Amino acid sequence: MGAFVISKRYNDEYKFVFTSRKGKVVFTSLSYELKFECEEDIEKFKATIETADFLKFKSSGGKFYFKLMLEGNHFATSRKYTTSLRLQKGIDEIVRYGSNSEVLDFSGNDFIFSD
User: Which residues does the chain have with pLDDT short of 50?
Assistant: First the structure.
């Protein structure tokens, strides 16, 4: 099962990533000024995952990636994949495990684990 991992960016804003069962980053969220906004968006995503859209792209370097759209708004961007099949496997993992994934908070000195 994957996990949502909350952390801080260098500019002190918050972000989260969704990691696969193998620990690889599948996508990275946009930035959030406050941690609770990050937590709220994770819960919102988990509750409405079936309505998410995955817009697929190919970079100028030939890599594949997607933008995750929720209610018509850009929500997150995936890592780069070498093939379209690997890209689809990343999307499938989100759809399969996203709603049941735990949330790990690595944004401070204390690590908080929650379901």
Answer: 111-115
